[in-house]
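Supplementary notes for students who missed Thursday's class. We covered one full example, reproduced here. Read the sequence, then the structure, then the short commentary at the end.
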Amino acid sequence: MCLAIPGKIISIDSQQEEVFRNGKVSFGGIIRQVNLSMVPDVKEGEYVLVHVGVAITKVDEKEAMQTLEYLKQMGEMDELDTSETKEKTQSDN
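Structure (token representation):
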């Protein structure tokens, strides 16, 4: 199942133009690089919904925390954690 997952923006990396920026987003402690082009007004410390590596909208912290908790209860965060572990293992080889 494809879901948009809420995460907290840890840092923003501006590239050549402000429109083409990426950032590091934490999904309950799992950090991923995310494209922030669709949310140009987002700032560090704010929460976004991320779908296939792209932040698609801002969400408030309460909604993000509640959604993350539901995803943990459903075991969906385990899949995200497993993917991260696989990527690290592959890059180490």
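Commentary. The beta strands are 5-13, 22-27, 30-35, 47-51, 54-59. Confidence is low (pLDDT under 50) at residues 84-93. If anything here is unclear, bring it to office hours.
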